[in-house]
Write a structure and sequence with these properties.
alpha/beta; Spore Coat Polysaccharide Biosynthesis Protein SpsA, Chain A; about 30% helix
C-alpha cells in the first residue's frame, strides 16, 4: 500500500519543520510524496517537498467559526485535502520529531497510531451530530494519523453531504462546548463502518510545551533529552 505524507504548519512552528522533515526517515515504509500546507509562504523550501497555502487546498471563511477558527480550519484541511496523489495520506503535526521507527501498516492493514489517552466530551458531542459515537476505548487524539480519502468521500456521500455542507453544518454546531477533533471523527467513523480495516499501535509520546517561541538549540536539547520516546512533541501554546 502506498501513501503520502501531509504536514500542516502555522507560522509559530516553521522553525520546527526541518526537524520533522529530517525525521521522516523513520517512517516505514517511506511516503511516496511529501506535502506541506501552511497559511503563509514558506521561504526556505526543499525540492523534494510540495508546498501549498491553506487557501489553495480548501477555501472557506474561517471568520464564521465561533471557536478557535485557525485550529478548526486546520482540521478541515486534514479531513478534506485533495492534493495527495494516493488515497492513503499520513497527517503529521509540524511540531513533532519522529524519534524511532514508525510502522504505517501492520499485519497488512493500515495502522492507527495512538498516543496519550484522553476523553474530551466536546469532541463526542460534535460527533453525535453526524451519527457517530465514541466506539473505541482509547482516544484517537495523536500527533500522527493515516487517513483515506475514499473512506471520507464515502461517508459524505452516504450522509448526503458535500465538503461544503459538512463545513457549513459544523459552523452551526461548533461552540465553546462542542467542536470537532478530526482524529476522533475519523477514527470512530472508521470503526463504525469498517471495524476490521485498521490495526492499532500505541506509541510512547510526551507533550512538551511552552508559551514562548522555540529556538533550534532548545529543540535539539529536547530531542536529545527524550530518546526513550517514539515521537517527541514540542508545542508552542499561544
Amino acid at each position: 500500500m502506498n501513501y503520502d505524507a501531509v504536514i500542516l504548519s502555522s507560522e509559530k512552528d516553521y522553525i520546527k519543520l526541518d526537524f520533522l522533515l529530517d525525521s521522516l526517515i523513520n517512517l516505514d515504509p517511506k511516503p511516496e510524496n511529501i506535502f506541506v500546507i501552511s497559511p503563509t509562504e514558506i521561504k526556505e523550501k526543499r525540492k523534494e517537498v510540495n508546498y501549498f497555502l491553506d487557501d489553495e487546498v480548501l477555501k472557506f471563511k474561517k471568520e464564521n467559526l465561533k471557536f478557535r477558527p485557525n485550529w478548526i480550519k486546520q482540521q478541515f484541511l486534514k479531513l478534506f485535502q485533495d492534493i495527495t496523489k494516493n488515497d492513503y495520506y499520513l497527517i503529521l503535526d509540524s511540531d513533532i520529531f519522529l524519534n524511532k521507527k514508525i510502522e504505517i501498516f501492520k499485519n497488512n492493514k493500515p495502522n492507527f497510531l495512538l498516543s496519550v489517552d484522553q476523553n474530551h466530551k466536546p469532541y463526542f458531542d460534535f460527533l453525535e451530530n453526524f451519527g457517530i459515537k465514541k466506539i473505541y476505548e482509547r482516544s484517537f487524539i495523536s500527533e500522527i494519523m493515516l487517513f483515506n480519502k475514499k473512506i471520507i468521500r464515502r461517508f459524505l456521500e452516504d450522509s448526503n453531504l458535500t465538503v461544503d455542507s459538512f463545513i457549513n453544518k459544523s459552523i452551526e454546531i461548533i461552540n465553546d462546548n462542542c467542536y470537532i477533533s478530526e482524529f476522533e471523527f475519523y477514527g470512530n467513523m472508521v470503526l463504525k463502518y469498517y471495524p476490521d480495516l485498521y490495526d492499532f499501535t500505541i506509541l510512547n509520546t510526551r507533550v512538551i510545551g511552552k508559551h514562548e517561541d522555540w529556538n533550534k538549540n532548545e529543540i535539539l536539547q529536547t530531542i536529545n533529552n527524550n530518546q526513550d520516546l517514539d515521537i517527541i512533541s514540542y508545542h508552542t501554546w499561544k
